[in-house]
Amino acid sequence: MNYIRTLAVLLIFLTIPGSVLGSRLEDKVRQHQFPNGLTLLVMERPESPTVDAYVTLGVGSVHENSKNRGVAHLLEHMLFKGTKTVGTKDYAKEKPLLDRIEAVGSQIDRLKHRPTASEPILHELRSELKALQKEHQKLVVKDEFSKIYSRNGGVGFNAFTSRDLTTYLVSLPSNKLELWATLESDRMRNPVLREFYTEREVVHEERRRSYETNPGGLMFEQLLATAFTMHPYRNPIIGWHSDIDHLTLEETRKFLKDYYAPRNTVIALVGDVGFEEAVALIDRHFSDIAPGIPVPPVEEREPPQKGERRLHITFDAQPRLMMAFHKPTLPERDDYVFDLINMLLSSGRSSRLYRSLVLEQGIASSVQTYVTPGSRYNNLFVVSATPRHPHSLETLEKALLEELDKLANGRVNPKELTRVRNQLATDQLRRLRSNKGLAQMLTYFQSVAGDWRYLASYQEAIADIGPEEIQQVARKYLVPTNRTVLTLSKEEKDS
Fold it and tell me: CA-CA distance, 81 to 191, in Å (whole number)?
């Protein structure tokens, strides 16, 4: 998802009569930072007696290393398992079992990768672990977080891990905010990583389902691994199988203790809640939690690409093509330009690629463009398309490149540019009008850009971009030496 595109709406629609956005967003969103580093953002919208609550931690898979790849995603799973008071029938009885499970599981982890590991010993340890896990299940209350929220009117309780951050969210009645603060502060203060070894196997299966048997997931994973040679954006959020298999409970607990803490946390409350009330609520429940360690910036920088990279995948699925170009991220001027390029090429039936390749030539059955995989660091502009039978991948690629050449060397009509600006604004207004959309946007920019007010200058920047600048950016980045091409088909391509 390209969150930058959400911003163009703000200053356009801030003065709509009756709009909940009010006269200026800067005047409506209020911010408070607590001594332990936690940041609170509040937008009062009393029209409905509900609140959308977002807890965003500025840590994602890009912050992992070779020893703990996949840990952020695994922790997302684990933090649904509960705390010392949630998810357990009796933590005093459960704790000794958890210790024994960790001791046996850690011993298995130490032995299983050794060439000289004894299979009989490993078999005995695995049998012991299975028996302990079966005994442990008698004390576990499954999905208790979700059940508590559901009983109290909460909806949309969920979480997601990206390369840049991790977010936990829920929408609930405003008179249940005290319950929310109690649960979420307990989850930050007293998490219990129960069912770790079971959940690690669940992640293995998730990886097989989402990537290895899914042509789209497989292509996307390979595209990033080919386009990036050293930056951690190249790694899948879920991790590779060997990463998942090597993740230990000790490493997972350390990552949690260091980074899942107030210093790296942004909370947004949007809806029927007063600012002073929200500050007092967060102070009561979160202020005594230790700050934690600031998430360190990623030092690796992807070197400039010096030539086209190309990979073909043989897979039992319909042919498809992906083409990626390296580009800068926010707040670089060229990043704004790519938002407009993205809209010009593939937003709606009147966009250039859809009109030409799908409607007029009939070469493609689908085509889209997007920016991926994150926004903290320089990323990729991707063109993805599926050929329509009987057209070949080669024919489709040639047609795509011709359209990109037209963008770089042809004329961008000012009316066309105005149309996509208006479309950008209209599309995103729908999202901003929801409490959920605004809460997500606020926590995202506060975490990734360092200040949610970054969005205030966006409309000015977009309005100032003309046809010539779009052509210049296209000529600079949409070139063969900066290009990575992936194709997928059932049959091996001729070399």
Answer: 8
> Could you give the count of Cα atoms lying within 13 Å of 495 in the half-sphere of its Cβ?
0
pLDDT digits (tens, 9 = 90+) for 152-205: 999 999 999 999 999 999 999 999 999 999 999 999 999 999 999 999 999 999
pLDDT for the residue numbered 12: 36
What is the reported pLDDT for 1?
38
Q: Which helix (H) or strand (E) holds 201?
A: helix 196-207
**Residues 82, 98: Cα–Cα separation, whole Å:** 13
Question: Is residue 252 pLDDT above 90, yes or no?
Answer: yes
The pLDDT value recorded for residue 203 is: 97
Q: Report the C-alpha gap between 83 and 61 in whole angstroms.
A: 24
DSSP code string of 244-281: HHH--HHHHHHHHHHHSSGGGEEEEEEES--HHHHHHH
Residue type, 199: E
Work out the mean pLDDT of the chain and round it to a whole number. Answer: 92
What angle, rounded to 10 degrees, do the helices at 177-189 and 275-286 form?
A: 30
Q: d(Cα 424, Cα 415) in Å, to the nearest integer?
A: 14
Joined together, the tokens standing for residue 276 give 């002073």
The amino acid present at 160, given as its one-letter code, is: F
DSSP reduced 3-state for 110: helix
The domains of the chain, with CATH numbers, are 8-286 (3.30.830.10), 309-489 (3.30.830.10)
Residue 289 DSSP label: S
**Residue 19 scores a pLDDT above 50:** no
Contacts of 386 (CB under 8 A, 6+ apart): 318, 319, 320, 321, 364, 365, 366, 367
Burial (CB < 10 A; 0-12, 13-18, 19+), residue 51, is: buried
Q: Distance between CA atoms of 272 and 296, rounded to whole angstroms?
A: 35
For the segment 308-335, what is each residue's pLDDT rounded down to a tens digit?
Answer: 999 999 999 999 999 999 999 999 999 9
Contacts of 168 (CB under 8 A, 6+ apart): 54, 55, 56, 79, 158, 159, 184, 187
Partnered with residue 168 across adjacent β-strands are 55, 159
The residue behind tokens 């997302």 is: 76
> CA 170 to CA 463: how far, in whole Å?
35
- Does the structure show a pLDDT above 50 at 15? no
Question: What pLDDT score does 56 carry?
Answer: 98
DSSP code for 303: P
Cβ atoms < 10 Å from Cβ of 18: 4
What token pair was written down for 155? 């909806």
> Dihedral (C-alpha) 242, 247, 251, 257: value to the nearest 10 degrees?
120
What pLDDT was estimated at residue 117? 81
Q: Give the C-alpha separation, 486 to 320, whole Å.
A: 8
Q: Which amino acid is at 106?
A: S
Radius of gyration (C-alpha) of the chain in whole angstroms: 25
